[in-house]
Amino acid sequence: MNAILCVDSNPKSLQTLSMIIRSNGYICIPAETTEEAVRAFSGSRADLVIVNNEPGKVSLASRLERLRDVPTIMLTDNVEKTQKPSGVDVLSPKPVHARELLSTISVLLSSAVKVRTFNFGKVA
After folding, report:
1. Could you tell me the pTM of the whole model?
2. How far apart are the first and last CA of the chain?
3. Residue ranges covered by each domain of the chain
4. What percentage of the chain reaches a pLDDT higher than 90?
């Protein structure tokens, strides 16, 4: 079962996101602050990160990427005007549309599995 770290300082938004994640068979690791997120990420086997685009959280993706490379989705109010920060794979619109978010999660997790299991050995 895949674990997803969800980071949002708004408790109601974090609760909604957690409900979407859990109701679709994923383990949700919630965090409200950057420091909570770093501790949770370091102490877990998170397979994917979802982070809200807010002050203090923008640099979180690159900080987590230095610890371990996992797919990262950043939720943002304006996908067209938001520049994708380092460590972020996908910008996703807010408010969250469950079906779209779950589809993105599925694609990123299946891509991550392919990358991890690909054989980089020498070709004869």
Report:
1. 0.87
2. 36
3. 3-117
4. 61
